[in-house]
Amino acid sequence: MATNNVLLCVGNGDESRADPLARTARELAVPTDAKVTVAHVFTPTEFDSILDTLETNPDEITPDELAERYKPIRSITNLLADDVRYEVHGERGTPSPTLLSLAEELATDYIVVGGRKRSPAGKLVFGSTAQQILLSAPCPVVFVKGDT
Hints:
The structure is a single chain. By secondary structure, the protein is α/β, with parallel strands linked by helices. It has a single domain (5-145), classed as Rossmann fold (3-Layer(aba) Sandwich), CATH 3.40.50.620. 44% of the residues lie in helices and 22% in strands. The protein contains seven helices and five strands. Strand 1 (5-9), helix 1 and strand 2 (35-42) form a beta-alpha-beta unit. Helix 1 (18-28) packs across helix 4 (71-80) and helix 5 packs parallel to helix 7. It is globular, with a radius of gyration of 15 Å.
């Protein structure tokens, strides 16, 4: 099966996993016309906080533009730049359902998501975006494990 669309979900802790995430997405984006969508979902609180830091308002910058400035995404796209056709996508919302909707909208063939080991209590108390994506994705998911 030729892969045409890979959704690479980027979270707050993924800068340290930039190389393995980019490498995995590159390996899954098989044909030359394949596209990797590098996506981050900003929670409303996170989005507003970043806008305050930048001293701008929501009418002056889109979530896509904000995502392009997001350091973990820049680290990953720098590694993809010459090898793979990609686009950056930013959204405001709740990460898991927003990313799952995006995967369906893009007719994604694979989702790549990073994460770290959590205790069962940690998963229960804090939830896990990666875990929710793994359990509910409309396509295969490749999990890239980090050290922390």
